[in-house]
User: What shape does this take?
Amino acid sequence: MSTIRDDCGKASRLQKDPGGAISRRIRIERESRGWSLSDLAEQSGVSKAMISKIERAEASPTATVLGRLSGAFGLPLSVLLALAEREEECLSLHDAQPLWADPETGYTRRAVSPPGAKVELIEVFLPAGVRIPYPAAAFAFQHQQIWVISGALDFTEGSTLHQLQEGDCLMLGPPADCVFSNPHNAAARYLVALTRR
Amino acid sequence: MSTIRDDCGKASRLQKDPGGAISRRIRIERESRGWSLSDLAEQSGVSKAMISKIERAEASPTATVLGRLSGAFGLPLSVLLALAEREEECLSLHDAQPLWADPETGYTRRAVSPPGAKVELIEVFLPAGVRIPYPAAAFAFQHQQIWVISGALDFTEGSTLHQLQEGDCLMLGPPADCVFSNPHNAAARYLVALTRR
DNA sequence: CGCAATCGTCTCTTATAGTGGACATTATCA
DNA sequence: TGATAATGTCCACTATAAGAGACGATTGCG
Assistant: This one.
């Protein structure tokens, strides 16, 4: 059992660099107003070279320039930052998604949904020939569906076998012992959607 | 008629540097937790030398270090900034208070209260021998009091003369022609408290 | 087509944010 | 009272944010 992206010890108190979210937010505010870099530079008094770097997250703006930029947008600085944070907690970027991989089999689970979402989406990669059993006791969900993105999947729910093909979607019934298995010679990719209890 | 602190032209869109408010806020958050500079430095990963500069507004922190500091406080960055802004709009620093001075007489009015306050406090400096008449039409207040801070003041309300000494406080009645005058040989300093209509 | 205008990025330089360590000052205690 | 530890500031140095202008790419227009 290993977790990805775990902060160790003291670092756990450290907040992750807000640079990415801020840079995206600033670009959104600028483009949604139809402004070019030069326009915003003139309005804010910040050089367009600097704004370009900030939007591409190549520089971390100082409080001073953040104040000038938010002023140009007509927003209080705290609101600009709040918008950035909101986006951050609603948008889960692919490279930031928690990932768990079994080095033995190549089985891979990726938590696609941002934390706190009501419906959790999990992308699973199941290599050819791999078999993953799930005891009924592991089910802490209210509702669960499986949708095959590519390849094919044999899914055993209790005593019934479902042979799922690409594009098929199965809604699970009450908790039962389950087995995900891929007896074919091509890898399978599927999505699990679930609501936690 | 002249106004102090008027931004000219394009600069009117520029927001004033949030550095002062941020620096005060950070010091408050740190001290209210009983943390030393070293403590916060350890918690946040920002050098204590830098924190010292930030708190004394000698440096404008980057988004990166602001993120680390707010993380150490356990606050979202936007909340930290919102607290700073709130303080900014509730606290009116002496040197930032709008001031009007009559170059001829030396009569001086200073708006002490932050903008938006329900009760407006005005500090007045009335040099010796100066006389300032106020027509009743100029009254757009619901309520008004005059408190003499130092020196003495002859205040005429309609036809009645009030000879106010240091420490005296007068509540005004319905609108009437008024005169502030200082017939003594020492300057007078008094406070006017009023609620706008 | 070609010219001009506009856009975002890149390069170079300067200003300053950020760090580690020394320092003066002030509590704390033997 | 002297030793020790803690606190905040100052200093020298490094990393990087910020500015001025050049550059290639794209667009629009005659």
Notes: Residues 86 and 159 of chain B are 45 Å apart (CA to CA). Strands of chain B lie at 99-101, 108-111, 119-126, 131-134, 141-150, 153-157, 160-164, 169-171, 178-181, 188-196.
